[in-house]
Design a protein that fits this description.
Elements (H helix, E strand, L loop, with lengths): L1 E6 L6 H8 L8 E6 L6 H5 L6 E4 L7 H11 L4 E6 L2 E3 L4 H6 L8 E9 L6 H10 L17 E5 H6 L10 H11 L3 E12 L5 H18 L7 H21 L3 H4 L2 H18 L6 H8 L17 E3 H4 L14
Parallel strand pairs: 1-2, 1-4, 2-3, 6-8
Antiparallel strand pairs: 3-9, 4-7, 5-8, 6-7
Helix pairs in contact: 8-11, 9-11
């Protein structure tokens, strides 16, 4: 089994994820990092753990789908487990719970697990997690929804269904849509729980949902998100959040924060659905590297797609500044 972690400037989080991985009760796995130009010491922290491999992708070549393809190509396991660098497991049997559903059916292509927020997660986003990732399992779900921040696929299927490298996001939804259309199943494992740390500015929330709106309109070409849809979604979700916040006695604290998040979420989605041109280089930088005006600089040897970790770990650590996440 291969654990694939996409990372860019995740110094603050990656240690907690790797610590959680190496505390798992399942021991037979490899860990592969796919780094797209980290400059903040992310890799120096990662080298404190027994990582099996680091794969580099040039920032100018990055997309979420391409990074996963690089990771899967380097993987040796029967299953590829995907974890964002800013998540961490809550349980030592996280991997077992994520993978055990594959034992029930050879037709199962993908399993995704539960996500929850922590103390820095915005209240409205916690409600998103609760809605998207319920408390009960879903076996052979009818929809292609899934999320690669916490998911596993059969690597053999990846050989036939590579990730779409042109999408600015939702490469997981696209992959699931294609395999499900060909008769494969998707399941949700509620006990395979991770904490997903999103400490974004409102601008970053807007950018995230905008690029996902662009991707969604490309994956399902006849789907629309109109201005009326924006108004309805904003009002419905804001009022629902207010009701929940009142019952949790935090309404006054969240009175302005909730509509700010929901406005960024749905206005970003609306603007994304209106975008029908090829992504410009400037827009790609804003979506993938929002903390810098230009692509981060990488070492000369990062032009190699596949680098053996034993050669990397002996290098002297370097320090550099950095910031945002993929």
């Amino acid at each position: 089994m291969s654990i694939i972690i996409r990372c860019y400037n995740e110094r603050e989080h990656i240690g907690k994820l790797l610590h959680g991985i190496y505390q798992q009760s399942m021991e037979d796995f490899e860990v592969i990092l796919v780094d797209s130009g980290s400059t903040d010491g992310t890799l120096e922290i990662a080298r404190e753990f027994p990582i099996d491999d680091i794969v580099y992708i040039a920032p100018s070549e990055f997309s979420f789908g391409r990074a996963l393809n690089y990771g899967c190509d380097a993987a040796n396991g029967e299953f590829c487990v995907f974890a964002s660098a800013h998540v961490y497991p809550l349980r030592s049997d996280w991997l077992i719970k994520l993978l055990e559903k594959f034992e029930d059916s050879d037709n199962l292509a993908l399993v995704y697990g539960k996500q929850r927020g922590n103390e820095v997660t915005k209240f409205a986003e916690k409600q998103v997690f609760r809605r998207w990732f319920p408390e009960d399992d879903i076996d052979r779900q009818p929809s292609p929804f899934c999320n690669n921040a916490n998911a596993a696929i059969r690597r053999g299927l990846w050989e036939d269904y590579k990730y779409n490298e042109s999408l600015p996001g939702l490469e997981d939804l696209d992959w699931a849509t294609r395999v499900q259309a060909d008769g494969y199943d998707i399941s949700y494992a509620s006990e395979a729980e991770i904490i997903h740390v999103h400490n974004e500015t409102i601008r970053q929330v807007y950018n995230r949902y905008r690029r996902e709106g662009i991707a969604h309109s490309q994956i399902i070409e006849d789907q629309r998100f109109t201005f009326l849809d924006f108004i309805q979604a904003f009002l419905k979700n804001t009022l629902s959040d207010y009701w929940t916040a009142a019952h949790e006695s935090v309404l006054l604290d969240e009175l302005l924060k909730i509509p700010k998040f929901r406005l960024a979420q749905f206005w970003g989605t609306y603007r994304g659905f209106q975008y029908d041109d090829e992504l410009s280089d400037r827009l790609r930088r804003r979506f993938f590297y929002p903390d810098t005006d230009r692509y981060p600089q990488t070492k000369d040897d990062r032009s190699d797609k596949h680098i053996d970790y034993s050669k990397v770990i002996s290098e002297e650590p370097t320090t550099s500044d950095g910031g945002s996440e993929n």
